[in-house]
């Protein structure tokens, strides 16, 4: 594929992608679903932490319970081919196992190398981000990282002609409780960050894609 054809394919995908709320009854092929999930799995994260999980929700009883507390997912829960939960870790402190394990995964060995990197992350969390002692700030940090994976999943889907809709319109505490009651998450260690529906649109959108003028959002600081 030439650079020109790749550029055109990307531009077409950007224009194709829209927030679809009602889907038809066609199911996404398994290989396409796995490709979309690979886009999440292989996404970058802050300090390589990967403090996330991506759960394909198939349990209809759980979907029905979530529907009761998710005003922004009513039609998607009913009609989407697949529904994905993006879950983020809580309390990912510099002195916790998650950061240590992420360093070991990347080949940082026990000893001075590991200790010096953890000291760097301690300064990052305490001084740069001022979040080390705030459970809420720590969760916000890991939750917003899931949006990198969310964007990658949506763009991968668009590139292969699959529609999607990111979802934040729900009661977070109640969804956490529902998922914990069904053994899907450990509420003490993780929480829902967002949701994603996937499928094929029932109809084309009524309105064309609208964005602010490019020059309003993109600039060069010289």
TrEMBL record:
<dbReference type="InterPro" id="IPR029479">
    <property type="entry name" value="Nitroreductase"/>
</dbReference>
<feature type="domain" description="Nitroreductase">
    <location>
        <begin position="15"/>
        <end position="200"/>
    </location>
</feature>
<dbReference type="InterPro" id="IPR033878">
    <property type="entry name" value="NfsB-like"/>
</dbReference>
<keyword id="KW-0521">NADP</keyword>
<keyword id="KW-0288">FMN</keyword>
<keyword id="KW-0285">Flavoprotein</keyword>
<dbReference type="GO" id="GO:0046256">
    <property type="term" value="P:2,4,6-trinitrotoluene catabolic process"/>
</dbReference>
<comment type="similarity">
    <text>Belongs to the nitroreductase family.</text>
</comment>
<protein>
    <submittedName>
        <fullName>Nitroreductase family protein</fullName>
    </submittedName>
</protein>
<dbReference type="InterPro" id="IPR050627">
    <property type="entry name" value="Nitroreductase/BluB"/>
</dbReference>
<keyword id="KW-0520">NAD</keyword>
<dbReference type="GO" id="GO:0046857">
    <property type="term" value="F:oxidoreductase activity, acting on other nitrogenous compounds as donors, with NAD or NADP as acceptor"/>
</dbReference>
<dbReference type="InterPro" id="IPR000415">
    <property type="entry name" value="Nitroreductase-like"/>
</dbReference>
<keyword id="KW-0560">Oxidoreductase</keyword>
<dbReference type="GO" id="GO:0005829">
    <property type="term" value="C:cytosol"/>
</dbReference>
<dbReference type="Pfam" id="PF00881">
    <property type="entry name" value="Nitroreductase"/>
</dbReference>
């Amino acid at each position: 594929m030439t650079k020109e054809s790749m550029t055109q394919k990307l531009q077409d995908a950007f224009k194709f992608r829209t927030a679809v709320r009602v889907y038809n009854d066609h199911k996404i092929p398994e290989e396409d679903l796995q490709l979309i999930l690979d886009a999440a799995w292989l996404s970058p994260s802050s300090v390589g932490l990967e403090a996330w999980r991506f759960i394909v929700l198939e349990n209809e009883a759980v979907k029905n319970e979530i529907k009761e507390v998710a005003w922004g997912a009513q039609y998607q829960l009913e009609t989407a081919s697949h529904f994905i939960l993006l879950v983020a870790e809580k309390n990912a402190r510099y002195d916790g196992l998650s950061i240590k394990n992420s360093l070991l995964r990347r080949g940082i060995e026990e000893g001075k190398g590991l200790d010096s990197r953890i000291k760097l992350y301690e300064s990052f969390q305490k001084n740069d981000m001022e979040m080390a002692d705030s459970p809420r700030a720590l969760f916000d940090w890991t939750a917003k990282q899931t949006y990198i994976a969310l964007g990658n999943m949506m763009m991968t889907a668009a590139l292969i002609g699959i529609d999607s809709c990111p979802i934040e319109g729900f009661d977070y505490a109640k969804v956490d409780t529902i998922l914990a009651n069904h053994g899907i998450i450990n509420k003490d260690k993780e929480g829902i960050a967002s949701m994603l529906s996937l499928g094929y649109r029932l109809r084309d959108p009524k309105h064309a894609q609208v964005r602010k003028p490019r020059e309003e959002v993109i600039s060069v600081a010289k």
